[in-house]
């Protein structure tokens, strides 16, 4: 069994029985997913879920969002924290979609990276979850899993920007399973391979994990 199978197979098997349910995981609409990813940045998913459905019902198109009252949008997002920044960013994003892309979310990484607030993670997430591309979306939590399981180190001050780790994660994706892999890594990092008090004794990846601090 190669490294991809030894990591991905048990990870996906765990995910199918332990996945979290969020509204943005039930759609492939690129606008809805893009909005979710903007809101999720540096914000707990449960907090986003609390405002997401109402927000998407209210601003379900870039046109609606671009015309939103800033004060009203801030009130809608206040429970999330960083609501002033995210409100301005969302309106700017909607305006850019209208002015440069005809109100549609682009399907190319190059164009997605031109949008305000969109970096490599969000661009890949949209391409994966909306357009079905097997691209890794690697955040800080996913990086933690890779560093522990494979015993690798990063020389970057922010390991989530380390191309070496992104390349490793990309290699681990089984063909046609990009969406499931990314979501599995997110949920596994949240529920099992936690920053503090990881559940090493019941971990599906324990047999291949090289982290020296795992519970015996």
Q: Helix segment count? A: 11
**SSE arrangement, N to C:** HHHHHHHHHHH
By helix and strand content, what is the structural category? mainly alpha
| Global outline | globular
Strand content: under 5%
Biggest β-sheet strands, sense, barrel: none
What do you see in this structure?
With 216 residues, this protein is mainly α. It is built from eleven helices and no strands. The longest helix is centred in the middle third of the chain and has 19 residues, at 83-101. The two termini are 25 Å apart. The model has no long low-confidence stretch (mean pLDDT 94).
List the helices and strands and how they pair.
Layout: H1 3-18, H2 30-40, H3 45-58, H4 62-66, H5 70-77, H6 83-101, H7 109-112, H8 120-129, H9 140-150, H10 163-172, H11 178-191
Summarize the structure.
The protein is mainly alpha-helical.
Features:
single chain, 216 residues, mainly alpha, 11 helices, globular
């Amino acid at each position: 069994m190669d490294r991809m199978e030894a990591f991905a197979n048990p990870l996906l098997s765990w995910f199918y029985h332990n996945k979290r349910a969020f509204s943005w995981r039930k759609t492939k609409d690129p606008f809805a997913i893009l909005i979710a990813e903007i809101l999720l940045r540096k914000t707990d998913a449960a907090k986003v879920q609390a405002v997401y459905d109402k927000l998407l019902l209210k601003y379900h198109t870039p046109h609606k969002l671009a015309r939103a009252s800033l004060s009203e949008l801030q009130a809608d997002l206040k429970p999330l924290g960083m609501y002033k920044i995210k409100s301005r960013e969302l309106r700017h994003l909607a305006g850019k979609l209208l002015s440069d892309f005809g109100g549609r979310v682009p399907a190319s990484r190059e164009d997605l990276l031109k949008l305000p607030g969109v970096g490599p993670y969000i661009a890949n997430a949209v391409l994966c979850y909306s357009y079905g591309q097997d691209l890794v979306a690697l955040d800080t939590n996913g990086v933690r899993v890779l560093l522990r399981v494979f015993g690798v180190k990063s020389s970057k001050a922010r390991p989530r920007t380390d191309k070496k780790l992104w390349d490793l994660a990309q290699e681990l994706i089984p063909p046609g399973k990009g969406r499931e892999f990314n979501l599995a890594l997110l949920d596994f990092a949240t529920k099992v391979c936690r920053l503090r008090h990881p559940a090493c004794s019941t971990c599906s990846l324990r047999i291949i994990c090289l982290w020296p601090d795992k519970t015996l």
